[in-house]
Every structure is written in structure tokens, then in C-alpha cells.
From TrEMBL:
Keywords: Flavoprotein, Oxidoreductase. Signal peptide: none annotated. Residues 5-139 form the FAD/NAD(P)-binding domain. This is NAD(P)/FAD-dependent oxidoreductase. Gene3D superfamilies: FAD/NAD(P)-binding domain (3.50.50.60). It comes from Leptospira ainlahdjerensis. The keyword Flavoprotein applies. The lineage of its organism: Bacteria, Pseudomonadati, Spirochaetota, Spirochaetia, Leptospirales. InterPro entries: FAD/NAD-bd_sf, FAD/NAD-binding_dom, Ferredoxin-NADP_redctase_2. It comes from the Bacteria.
């Protein structure tokens, strides 16, 4: 079977670009497909990344792509991968341009799809005054009057981080709390207010949150809010599932230390394999998936497969 590329990388964010860099460093051919839907597009900065702390996400991607220019084995396609099918040898994929490409390995780097609260103001403030990660955005709003929207088993894992940043904190469960009296006593002990009422919207000016509106009581003044996504996470594509890749209870692909899924020749990396979501961790995950793909390719060549 003739292959167009050795590896198809689906997703051109930190994970996909880092995977491409690993492949380029070993002169392996790869096609990076990106449909221009970066998760951090609403944000004006990314943080907690040494040498690039505070950089605009689009600028980070530009610099990462510039780094890849010297690797002539790496190519880009601006569009979507519609489907991937496992062949007798390798894989074939249909692109949104209508062409079909053949390759030996695939790296799933397309990340997750954020689910927004269906209330006025949430989408407008996402990445600006409503955030998902205290490490990514907490420093800039430290000492503020904060809110935390969460009502799941993960609530009390993230709560200490947000409480440490806040001058005062309200936990909004957006309905009846799904935890018991023991957890409520912890909130009281740490001066965290609990509101179990439904959220009806957000009051804001420009990109700045002013207050959280509630269904049956007065709005609560807040300067920023953190949002705990509903589990399991939704991924940006179902290509991995169509190939038979297993997922865990949180909606992430199960992978080994080099990003290999349970499907031979398929690797995954970035936000779709771990709940720890940041540009730095996604990039590290992508590097390892790229290394995994390189090792598989070279192993097959070395052993004459």
C-alpha cells in the first residue's frame, strides 16, 4: 500500500503541534489537520508556560508553526478530517477538501468541546471573566470576589485552589447540592458561601463580570467565576470512537505513557486524555505521542515489517 504520509495529526493546537515537532525532529512525514477551532480562542493570554507566560494564544500557535517551518517533512491542511478508516495496512482518511489520504499512524490531538451554561452572558464572558483553570487565569484575578460553579464529585478537588485566590468565595451549585452535610460543614469552616439556586444569567459590562443572576433572589456581586465542566467531557470529534479507542469514565481516551490507545497505530494526546488542561501539559502530552509514533514507525522499519 502506498502512503501519502507516515502520520496524520488531527488537531493543530499545542498537542498536535508538539507531536509534529517530535516527528519533524526525526524526519518523519506528517500532515497536521486543523479546522481553526482552538479551545482558548476567547482568551487574550495563556499562562504557566515558561518563556511564554502571558502570551496571546494565537501568537503562541504562530510561533509554534514557525518552529516547524524548517522541518520539510511536516505539512499542514486547513480543514477538517471527516472520517478515518483502518485499512489492511495503515489507515485512510477523508478530508473536508474531498481528497482521501493514506498513512501509517494517526494522532488524535483535537481536544475537548466546552459545554456552556445556556444562560445569557456565559458565552460572552467565557475566557474573559468566566474561567476553567485557576493556574491559567487565577493570578490575574487574585484577591477578587469570586464564584465557583460546580456540583460534581470534582467540586472539592478544585475548591481549595479557588478559595486561596478569593477575597471571598461563593459556591454556586446551580440547583440542589449533590453533596452531604459533611461537605457543607467544610464550606462553613472555610467561610465559603453556598447557593443552591439556579443561575439565570450574568450581568456584565464589556468583558467584565458584575454579578451572577439567580432565578428567585437578588444577583450576587462577583468579579470573576470559575466553572467546573459537567462530566464526562465531550470531545471535538468522534473519530477515535469510530476507530474503537476506549475512553474512561471522564470521557478521555485511555493511553499509555507514550500516548498509545488500545487501537494499534492510534495515539491520542492533549486535553482529550487528561483532566489537567493547560497549554504546557497539552504540549508535553503531544511530545510524548509524537515520540510514541516515531518509535512505532522505526521499530517496524528496523524489524522489516
Amino acid at each position: 500500500m502506498k502512503f501519502d504520509y507516515e502520520v496524520l495529526i488531527i488537531g493543530g493546537g499545542p498537542a498536535g503541534l508538539s507531536a509534529a515537532l517530535s516527528l519533524g525532529r526525526m524526519s518523519r512525514t506528517a500532515l497536521v489537520c486543523d479546522d481553526s477551532r482552538p479551545r482558548n480562542a476567547p482568551s487574550s493570554h495563556l499562562n504557566n508556560f515558561p518563556t511564554r507566560d502571558g502570551i496571546h494564544p494565537a501568537e503562541w500557535r504562530r510561533l509554534a508553526k514557525k518552529d516547524l517551518e524548517k522541518y520539510q517533512t511536516i505539512r499542514f491542511f486547513e480543514g477538517s478530517v471527516l472520517s478515518v478508516e483502518k485499512a489492511v495496512s495503515g489507515f485512510s482518511a477523508e478530508l473536508s477538501s474531498g481528497i482521501r489520504v493514506r498513512f501509517k499512524k494517526v494522532i488524535l490531538a483535537y481536544g475537548v468541546e466546552d459545554t456552556f451554561l445556556p444562560v445569557p452572558g456565559f458565552r460572552e464572558l467565557w475566557g474573559k471573566s468566566i474561567f476553567h483553570c485557576p493556574y491559567c487565569h487565577g493570578f490575574e484575578i487574585r484577591g477578587s470576589r469570586l464564584g465557583f460553579i460546580s456540583n460534581s464529585e470534582m467540586t472539592f478537588h478544585m475548591l481549595p485552589l479557588i478559595n486561596a485566590l478569593a477575597s471571598d468565595l461563593i459556591l454556586f451549585t446551580n440547583g440542589k447540592a449533590e453533596f452531604g452535610e459533611e461537605e457543607k460543614s467544610i464550606l462553613i469552616k472555610n467561610n465559603v458561601a453556598l447557593i443552591e439556586e439556579k443561575i439565570s444569567g450574568f450581568i456584565f459590562e464589556g468583558e467584565q463580570l458584575k454579578a451572577v443572576s439567580l432565578e428567585n433572589s437578588e444577583p450576587k456581586e462577583r468579579q470573576a467565576v470559575f466553572f467546573q465542566p459537567t462530566l464526562p467531557f465531550s470531545l471535538k470529534s468522534r473519530i477515535g470512537e469510530s476507530l474503537g479507542c476506549e475512553k474512561n469514565q471522564f470521557g478521555f481516551y485511555k493511553v499509555n505513557e507514550r500516548g498509545a490507545t488500545n487501537v494499534d497505530g492510534v495515539f491520542a494526546c492533549g486535553d482529550n486524555v487528561s483532566p489537567a488542561h493547560s497549554v504546557l501539559l497539552a504540549a508535553a502530552s503531544g511530545t510524548m505521542a509524537g515520540i510514541g509514533a516515531v518509535s512505532a514507525l522505526l521499530g517496524e522499519e528496523f524489524n522489516g515489517n
